[in-house]
């Protein structure tokens, strides 16, 4: 066995568990390192506290004097927890998080020193961020970017650093990060949804979008991962024959969690608790070494921050336990990939979940209003939702017969389908008293308060109603939820705004009662959005054909899918809802295309390296052994040697053939890459997708065949069975 592979396996097998004990009750750990309401009350003046709360609730500005007060109390709190540094924590367009640490420590005149942190440092910073992708925004405007405090997401201490969640914007106002557009989308949905809520309940003054994500991931021993250049460089295996046993026995799903993994999870959960990330469930997933972690849902901005933070913490904690965590959507061919379901709903400041049916017909009409509007919004912007989850790595998952297809559709279950079917028949215009009573008692009133157990869950749907929330399942495990959450909340905001206008105009022009008007508009929406509803098997070929007939988009690759982001319709939407202007939309699109190209380019290079430097030399080495063997047989048996050397000669030929195929394909791919690199933008991405990427499978095919033929003792790359089953 090659030294690298042998040592990696040995290290893994000898690994003990880093035992993690429960520090104390989870509830006692929760939020201990967060500057939350409790800490703020303790450290802040009443005035300063109130100004933060107002900023959270109503988006009011915090003046400089108050900011100074807040900064001082934040610093005092942080120092009491042993923090020495602070950082503006932000989410650049790379999808990861970024931070630049500054010490509180400052020298003062006379040779002394003190810890200092004022309002200016809290509110605004200028990171040296010239190397973050900006899609030309800052070059165009020759403006620098700065980070600005987001008071709606509380500061926290990680390690010995006080982290202050911030947005990252250009001086000209353009957003350079993922958070700023999300905050604007959340504000838009708040405005539209609150206005619609007032039809039903005047007391509602704020609506929050809620998000509960479910993070899937793989855990691989650190030494094994390090023995695979492809995993280290690209996050996935570019080569590797499937092992005899994969996931066919379904023995991993909900099976007992191995103790080493359990210790990692315990450690991770304790860290999460301290940071106020309310993780709740953990279990094995379908594939070997695949797991899932889910929190209690939160307000969407906070939930997005918590997911980004958690992914970061997971990497750090996994090192302590000698694991490498893989967030890639498809690390292993033939093995289930990882996603990040985004459970989404809207909730009022009066404590009502707007996607949960209520006790009275009126509450149910409110539920139906938000329910139908959501379906209509997804119908109108299905291609934009698909675009919001597009990435080079997620392309492996979508439509790959195990994950939601690249076609966006909505599943609502048979019960609610019946309700919508009946609502389609509501009379146009004024309703007779009889019809009104009928509607309220027999249709709207019939929706059971608790749908949770009644919705038969269709696991193949990319956007499913699951009783009191919608679940966007197409989001990739590696991605930042901010992208899809920005799109979803923007389209809902737009939809609800249009809905209100239509209802109001029916009330004014046609003199309809409000509830009549609501029924009338909903009826039209149900009819208009019918084609997005699909209750059947989303994985089958039949659905692909059917979806095509219905005119739904089916964009299988990122370069195709991303086009929807810069369509006239999309730009008009983002501008109308004041989420992004044209420059911001186009800059993002450019960055995402570039990111796609870079990922495929890196994979192409790594694949060529591994095939040339690892696979082919090993194959030749083994072939030489065979040649020696044949020569020896000839020596012993003379002319009749062929009888004894038949198999070996066959093998020698096969190996030569595979080597030749790999070599020529790498050469072609490399030449093609040189050509493709001359292209720009969309054409460049299209070419990487359609001309470079197809070589991967072809090269892999031959390399994986060699893996089967070559002596296991010589094979340099850690095999699937070792990666997936060694713990
Ligand atoms: P699963 O999809 O695995 O069956 P659940 O349906 O129990 O799991 O919940 C999945 C996630 O949905 C959890 O993270 C939970 O917090 C979240 N969730 C529940 N209610 C809401 C809601 N109103 N808004 C957003 N997320 C929610
Ligand atoms: Mg789920």
Overview of the structural elements:
With 727 residues, the protein is of the alpha+beta class. The chain folds into four domains: 31-175, Glutamine synthetase, N-terminal domain (Ubiquitin-like (UB roll)), CATH 3.10.20; 178-203 and 342-580, no CATH class; 215-241 and 250-338, Glutamine synthetase/guanido kinase, catalytic domain (Creatine Kinase, Chain A, domain 2, 2-Layer Sandwich), CATH 3.30.590.10; 595-725, Four Helix Bundle (Hemerythrin (Met), subunit A) (Up-down Bundle). It contains 25 helices and 17 strands. The strands form three sheets. Strands 9, 10, 11, 12, 13, 14, 15, 16 and 17 form a nine-stranded mixed sheet that branches. Helix 22 (582-637) packs parallel to helix 24 (681-709). The radius of gyration is 29 Å and the shape is globular. The relative contact order is 0.11. The model has no long low-confidence stretch (mean pLDDT 91). Adenosine-5'-diphosphate is lined by residues 210-212, 214, 294-297, 341, 343-345, 353, 466, 468-469.
């Amino acid at each position: 066995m090659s030294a690298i592979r042998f040592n990696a396996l040995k290290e893994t097998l000898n690994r003990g568990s880093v035992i993690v004990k429960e520090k104390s009750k989870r509830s006692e750990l929760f939020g201990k390192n967060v500057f939350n309401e409790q800490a703020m009350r303790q450290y802040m003046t009443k005035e300063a506290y109130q100004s933060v709360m107002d900023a959270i609730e109503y988006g009011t500005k915090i003046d400089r004097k108050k900011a100074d007060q807040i900064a001082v109390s934040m610093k005092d709190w942080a120092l009491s927890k042993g923090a020495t540094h602070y950082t503006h924590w932000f989410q650049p367009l790379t999808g990861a998080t970024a931070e630049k640490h500054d010490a509180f420590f400052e020298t003062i005149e006379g040779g002394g020193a003190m810890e200092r942190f004022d309002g200016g440092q809290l509110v605004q910073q200028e990171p040296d961020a010239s190397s973050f992708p900006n899609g030309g925004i800052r070059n165009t405007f020759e403006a620098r970017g700065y980070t600005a405090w987001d008071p709606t997401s509380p500061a926290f201490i990680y390690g010995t650093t006080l982290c202050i969640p911030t947005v990252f914007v250009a001086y000209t106002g353009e957003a350079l990060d993922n958070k700023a557009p999300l905050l604007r989308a959340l504000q838009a949905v708040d405005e539209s949804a609150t206005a619609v809520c007032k039809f039903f309940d005047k007391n509602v003054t704020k609506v929050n979008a809620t998000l509960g994500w479910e993070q899937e991931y793989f855990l691989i021993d650190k030494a094994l991962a390090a023995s695979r250049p492809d995993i280290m460089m690209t996050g996935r295996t570019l080569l590797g024959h499937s092992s005899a046993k994969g996931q066919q026995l379904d023995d991993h799903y909900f099976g007992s969690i191995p103790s080493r993994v359990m210790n990692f999870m315990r450690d991770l959960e304790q860290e999460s608790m301290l940071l106020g990330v309310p993780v709740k469930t953990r279990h094995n997933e379908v594939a070997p070494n695949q797991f899932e972690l889910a929190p209690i849902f939160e307000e969407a901005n906070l939930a997005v921050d918590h997911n980004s933070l958690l992914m970061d913490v997971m990497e750090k904690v996994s090192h302590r336990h000698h694991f490498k965590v893989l967030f890639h959507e498809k690390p292993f061919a033939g093995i289930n990939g990882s996603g990040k379901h985004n459970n989404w709903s809207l909730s009022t400041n009066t404590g009502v979940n707007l996607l949960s049916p209520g006790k009275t017909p009126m509450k149910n009409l409110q539920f139906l209003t938000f329910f139908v509007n959501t379906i209509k919004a997804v119908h109108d912007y299905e291609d934009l939702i698909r675009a919001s989850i597009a990435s080079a790595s997620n392309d492996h998952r979508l439509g790959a017969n195990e994950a939601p297809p690249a076609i966006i559709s909505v599943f609502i279950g048979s019960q609610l389908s019946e309700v919508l079917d009946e609502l389609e028949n509501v009379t146009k215009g004024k309703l007779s008293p009889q019809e009104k009573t009928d509607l309220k008692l027999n249709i709207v009133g019939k929706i059971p308060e608790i749908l949770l157990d009644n919705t038969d869950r269709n696991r193949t749907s990319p956007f499913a109603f699951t009783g009191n929330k919608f679940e966007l399942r197409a989001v990739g495990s590696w991605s930042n939820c901010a992208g899809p959450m920005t799109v979803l909340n923007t389209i809902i905001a737009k939809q609800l705004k249009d809905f209100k206008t239509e209802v109001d105009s029916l009330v004014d022009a046609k003199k309809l009662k409000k509830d009549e008007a609501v029924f009338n508009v909903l009826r039209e929406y149900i009819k208009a959005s019918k084609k997005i509803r699909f209750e059947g098997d989303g994985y089958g070929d039949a659905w692909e054909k059917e979806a095509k007939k219905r005119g739904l988009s089916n964009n299988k690759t990122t370069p195709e899918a991303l086009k929807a982001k810069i369509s006239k319709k999309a730009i008009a939407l983002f501008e109308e809802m004041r989420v992004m202007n044209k420059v911001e939309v186009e800059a993002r699109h450019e960055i995402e295309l570039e990111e796609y190209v870079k990922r495929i380019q890196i994979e192409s290079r790594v694949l060529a390296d591994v095939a040339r430097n690892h696979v082919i030399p090993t194959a030749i080495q083994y072939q030489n052994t065979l040649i020696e063997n044949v020569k020896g047989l000839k020596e012993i048996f003379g002319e009749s040697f062929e009888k004894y050397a038949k198999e070996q000669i066959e093998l020698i030929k096969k190996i030569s053939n595979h080597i030749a195929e790999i070599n020529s394909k790498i050469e072609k791919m490399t030449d093609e890459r040189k050509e493709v690199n001359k292209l720009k933008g969309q054409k460049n991405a299209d070419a990487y997708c359609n001309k470079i990427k197809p070589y991967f499978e072809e090269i892999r095919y031959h390399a994986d065949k060699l893996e089967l033929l070559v002596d296991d003792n010589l094979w340099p790359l850690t095999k699937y069975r070792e990666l997936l089953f060694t713990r």
